[in-house]
Amino acid sequence: MNPPQQPRTAPSQGTGRLVDGFGRVHTDLRVSVTDRCNLRCSYCMPVDAAFRPREELLAYEEIARVVRVAAGLGVRAVRITGGEPLLRSGLDALVRLLVAVPGVGDVALTTNGLLLAEQAERLRRAGLHRLNVSLDSLRADVFETLARRRGLDRVLAGLVAAKAAGFGAIRINAVSIRGLTEEEIVPLAEFCRREAFHLRFIEFMPLDAEAAWADDRVLSGREVRAILERHVGPLVPLPAGDRGQPAVDFAWADGGGRVGFIDPVTAPFCDRCDRLRLTADGQVRNCLFSTTEWDVRPVLRGDADEAAVDAGIAALLRACVGAKRAAHGIGSTGFERPARAMFQIGG
Ligand code: SAM
Ligand code: SF4
Fold it and tell me: The domain 28-345: what is its CATH number?
């Protein structure tokens, strides 16, 4: 894999879209609302996680303000994530604020599903467009081994509630880890075919808090696909849709829905990355693997007038996008893991 290169063009200046030095236009913002979680997935969090104090987290109004400025610069899709976003109280209030932002046409949520049964209907009424639920195993014992807490029954109840609330095209995200998840692949695929969920397998990335990641633990999308074709049936590649979409989707040849693969380690999609991230404590990041962050809190919480605050947020977003590297560089000699683990960034 090539190490990050030098920018080919000057990043965009002034008003207009968020274009980086490699011509990538940023239209997708991932917003983490908390670093807390009710699970302790080994690939994400430490068992004894310490969390940011409440006052460091952005308020919903502050998040909406950043999103409004970002939308003015061309951001069209927002995903709420965490930690576990449903732990943040009154999350439907944030959804209402975000769906009302002019220009934002897609507000989605990624959740572990434990609190979904209680909240699905409220979220739907608030206008949430799309839902991703993370589920790595349908066996209670394996779920507990991976998540280091119990909860499978609650996730399954959450999925039933989400369907009843009217969410369509629900996605299921499953992380693939060699030696841990091979046996889960076929049951998950059969479950998703039956329930008409869109399953996506994600390669294990070096973002776990306990630094257990190693390249030989990565069960590649290609290997998962081979298991599926051997035990479930043939897959037909689907034409790529949205250019910024990291997943490569396949349809079951028998018409049983689709399955996708997000392969950031074995088939990086950095060349078409259109994402920015806002952490729960107000750090803007241009990559999951970014080692630099742009702190938006002093801009939001200073005593400048409204127009100056908005201009400050826009300048910060531009600076962050302008500094984006060509690629994450996993596997290259210069690769440096970020200080934050996944739960502190927002996946
Ligand atoms: N708690 C919510 C959940 O689990 O869906 C939202 C946050 S979680 C960090 C978002 C997604 O990141 C989940 O689908 C999770 O499986 C994935 N994830 C976490 N750590 C990962 C890692 N090291 N490699 C690949 N995916 C990871
Ligand atoms: Fe929590 Fe999601 Fe991380 Fe699992 S992947 S520990 S559910 S934040």
Answer: 3.20.20.70
What residue has token string 């290259």? 332
Q: Residue 29 in contact with residue 70, Cβ under 8 Å?
A: yes
d(CA 310, CA 253): 50
Contact 111, 133 (CB under 8 A): yes
CB-CB neighbours of 141 under 10 Å: 10
Rounded to the nearest angstrom, the distance between the alpha carbon of 252 and the centre of ligand 2 is 29
pLDDT digits (tens, 9 = 90+) for 68-84: 999 999 999 999 999 99
DSSP 8-class letter at 339: S
Give the pair of three-digit tokens for residue 224.
């998962």
Q: Which ligand is nearest to the CA of 82?
A: 1
pTM here is: 0.95
**What is the C-alpha separation between 194 and 191, in angstroms, rounded?**
5
DSSP secondary structure of 168-217: -S-EEEEEEBTTTSGGGHHHHHHHHHHHT-EEEEEE--S--TT----GGG
Residues found in the chain: 347
- Rounded to the nearest whole angstrom, what is the distance from the C-alpha of residue 28 to the centroid of ligand 2? 21
Provide the token pair at 78.
């927002």
Contact, 34 vs 84, CB < 8 A?
yes
pLDDT of residue 10: 56
What whole-number distance in Å separates Cα of residue 157 and Cα of residue 302?
44
Which residues does a 6 A CB cutoff place in the pocket of ligand 1?
37, 43-44, 81-82, 84, 110-112, 134, 173, 175, 202, 204-205, 207-208, 342-343, 347
CA of 83 to the centre of ligand 2 (A): 6
Place of tokens 């298991």: 227
Q: How far apart are CA 311 and CA 254, in angstroms?
A: 53
Listed as ranges, residues in the chain with pLDDT below 50 are 1-4
- Write down the domain spans for the chain: 28-345
In the three-class reduction of DSSP (H, G, I as helix; E, B as strand; rest coil), residue 227 is classed as: helix
